[in-house]
Amino acid sequence: MHLIPTPRKMELKSGFYYFDGEMPDVKKEVKKSFLTEEGYRLTVDSDGVCIEGGSEKGVFYGEITLKQILNNYRGMLPYIYISDEPEFDYRGFMLDSARHFLTVEEVKKVIDACAYFKLNKFHFHLTDDQGFRFEMKEYPLLTEVGSKRRASEFSAEESVREEYAHYYTKAELKEIVEYCHERYIEVIPEFDIPGHTTTLLAAYPELSCTGEEIEPQTKGGVFEDILCAGNPETMKVIYAVIDEMCEIFTDKYFHIGGDEAPKTRWIECEKCHKKKAELGLRNFQELQGWLMNEVAEYLKTKGKKAICWNDALKGGNLDSTNTVVSLWLERNNRSIEWANSGKGLIVESNVPLYMDYPYAVNSLEKIYKFNPKKLKGLTEVGANSILGIESPAWSEHIRDFTELTYMCFPRWLAVAETAWTGGNKKGFPQFLETTRFYCDVLTEMKITPAERDVWSGAPQKAVPQLLKYGKRMLSPESVIDFIKVQKNELFGGGK
Ligand SMILES: [Zn+2]
User: Fold this and answer.
1) How far is the CA of 114 from the centre of ligand 1 (A)?
2) Residue 304 CA to ligand 1 centre (angstroms)
3) Of 200, 273, 299, 446, whose CB neighbour count within 10 A is largest?
4) CATH number for the domain harbouring residue 164
5) For the chain, how many structural domains are there in total?
6) Burial 15-24 (b: 16+ CB within 10 A, else e)
């Protein structure tokens, strides 16, 4: 039987239940007392089909499993008993509409496919150096100026000298959030601060340390101009964006970025020096820690929990009461120490979970075999602090929906399997067969997965992938170089 994710416990019995039409009648019941919130039991016997869930959400997952079973059989169901619940509460996928924009309809197609494999957290990267995609009322220039760049020059092959201008209206974002909620997916907006904020500085140059005019970026990268931490106006704008985003995004988590924020400008800025001294902080990494804590505290007053990229741990003063950390690239063991002291960690390790990396680097099998609880240095407390995993699809090199589905599918099926089952897996050959089976289902959902030759990432098979989309896609060598540079230069130094 082909099911993704694999249920925790499944007993196939002899006999079949026959029914007319597409779907059988289903008896549904919520039983809070002895099932976890997302847990469910599915029984098919001579009496028919019964789904019991720990909540409405659990019932929903039972229904998905039923739909998947029906892909295997038509007009009848085998007698079966399934008792299932996920290993991880946090089973995430991330879309980046800042670098390259996705329409509401495209986002919905991805959501449909992710819900079908029981992913439950949609992290929406909405602001970055190359685009501010949120319709902002109180500071309208964030949208008017921040949503437009004059060109797109993410690689030698993509060098387009025309304006790229997109944003989501509040009504569109509400529609996306409702669409997710109908599928029991929580939406986590990301407002990336204090780095990756060129678009904010383009709209309001007074928010930078220098006050100089600047344009939204047309290339990928890490940029030195970031929000000035010593300017009270910075906090005012941050809180205003959060206020307006919280009107739309009503779920628990809110991502505030914190990654790739060089301190070059802060070190040269009188206001930042003054702020650091006033707070009695030892260095500018601590100043960033302070900034993240302030914002997390503000989010707490709105009933939210902040998420920060693990770069924000550099100051050593990130407050764990209001914040969980998402680990994308480990250095100096800080994320592991964070988890080992019982603080919440979401694992989104670039290897194997980044979808903008080629299959040659992050193959289907590598993702399938990944066990976040086995990260190097993790103690038992640390393993128990892992909230789950998330797989980001950064879009500097993923230009459109076709490229997105090619890179994310079927790899997100392996992400879903790992997120739901943890280390409890049945074996890759079986998963491979099941993945092949679901490629047809994905096609029916208007999602075109990568062809099977590519999944293994073997060099001779990965070449067609590179040819198909041109040299513009990240090459395995460029990814390896990137990781080396990141480790040595960005994270090695202790500014
Ligand atoms: Zn400053």
Assistant:
1) 41
2) 27
3) 200
4) 3.20.20.80
5) 2
6) eebeeeeeeb
For ligand 1, the distance from its centroid to the CA atom of residue 51, given in whole angstroms, is 57
User: Among positive and negative, which fits the CA dihedral 452, 115, 117, 326?
Assistant: positive
Boundary residue ending a domain (26, 57, 84): 84
Domain boundary, last residue among 25, 56, 84: 84
Distance 241 CA to ligand 1 centre (A): 20
Residues of the chain with pLDDT > 70, as a percent, come to 93
Q: Give the closest residue to 82 by CA, choosing from 102, 96, 62.
A: 62
Ligand 1 centroid–CA 158 distance in Å is 34
| Range of 72-81, 166-175, 451-460 with top mean pLDDT | 166-175
Beta strands in 220-311 (DSSP E): 253-257, 305-309
Q: How far is the CA of 421 from the centre of ligand 1 (A)?
A: 46
Residue 1 falls inside a structural domain: no
Looking at the structure, tell me whether residues 110 and 59 fall in a common domain.
no
41 within domain boundaries:
yes
Give me the mean pLDDT over the 308-335 stretch: 94
CATH number at residue 16: 3.30.379.10
**CA 209 to ligand 1 centroid distance, Å:** 4
Question: 475: exposed, middle or buried (C-beta count within 10 Å: 0-12, 13-18, 19+)?
Answer: middle
The whole model's pTM is what? 0.94
Taking the centre of ligand 1 as the mean of its atom positions, its distance from the CA of residue 308, in whole angstroms, is 21
Beta strands in 236-277 (DSSP E): 253-257
CA of 489 to the centre of ligand 1 (A): 22
Whether residues 211 and 334 share a domain: the answer is yes
State how far the Cα of 7 lies from the Cα of 410, in Å rounded to an integer: 19
Question: Which pair of structure tokens corresponds to residue 344?
Answer: 């919440």
Joined tokens for residue 339 = 């988890």
Give the rounded distance of the alpha carbon of 336 from its chain centre.
20
More confident residue, 403 or 463: 403
Does 257 have pLDDT greater than 90?
Answer: yes
Q: 483 versus 81: which is more confidently predicted?
A: 81
Residues 37 and 121 in one domain: no
